[in-house]
Amino acid sequence: MKKLTIALFAAGLLLMGQTVYAQDSTKQTTEAVVVDSSDADMSIEEMIGNEDMAELAEMAAEDIGMHQELKNKFIEGDPRYMSLVAIVLIIGLALCIERIIYLTRSEVNTKKLLSDIEKKVESSDVEGAKTICRNTRGPVASVCYQGLMHINESAEDIERSIISYGTVLTSRLERGCSWIKLCIAIAPSLGFLGTVIGMVMAFDQIQAEGDISPTIVAEGMKVALITTIFGIIVALILQVFYNFVNSRIDRLTTQMEEGAINLMDIFAKVKAKSEK
């Protein structure tokens, strides 16, 4: 209740400040608008000045922004070919984001997980250790669960089972990466396709006009170069995301290997204690 009162009081002060500022601004605007009647017939250029008009025009041009510039280049590069590059970018980013979310959710605190499993195994509560693995997401917990399933077998059989199941989990982690690589390869290829088509358009126009004009050649060359640039940019963007995904996969694979090694050490320690 106290926090709510303070928040309402602060909001009231802010509202009062805005009201006073609005009144002052209105007053200043009214004073600035009042001019002599002799100045009423002056043009805007004469009142502002040519230099100020040039600065305003430059500021207006800058306000177009990068988004409008990209839109213009997209249209100049012929939407028929640029749309294909854009579709590849969207599909590639969707695959990358899906993999990043999946891999991020698969990461767990490996040390804590193995510590909990070790406590359960030392107290001969194998089912409790399995329950911990089932309730923990990620490939590390799955590898540990696979080892606990064969805890009564020999060390060689346990290791063989863990390695085989680890291969399956690694393939799950890499699911969709081949499609990302395909998008990386397709994007510049589509750009080069636009380049070839743009060159063909230029030569067709030269043939139709019967004369080599810089204007005719420039139009086709522009389409060619813009599509190539966008194709390479898309490939570079997807390559960065792909490398990030690969780094996450390598990290999880390393955690799986460390978890398997530590789990085998836990089994060996427990068996040594039981034999004594």
TrEMBL record:
Signal peptide: 1-22
Segments forming domain MotA/TolQ/ExbB proton channel: 139-258
Subcellular location, record wording: Cell membrane; Membrane
GO biological process, one term: protein import
Keywords: Cell membrane, Membrane, Protein transport, Signal, Transmembrane, Transmembrane helix, Transport
Topological category with respect to the lipid bilayer: Multi-pass membrane protein
Transmembrane segment boundaries: 81-102, 179-203, 223-245
Pfam families: MotA_ExbB
Principal location class: membrane
GO cellular component: plasma membrane
Family the UniProt entry places it in: Belongs to the exbB/tolQ family.
PANTHER family xref list: BIOPOLYMER TRANSPORT PROTEIN EXBB (PTHR30625:SF15), PROTEIN TOLQ (PTHR30625)
Listed name of the protein: Biopolymer transport protein ExbB
Top-level taxonomy: Bacteria, Pseudomonadati, Bacteroidota, Bacteroidia, Bacteroidales
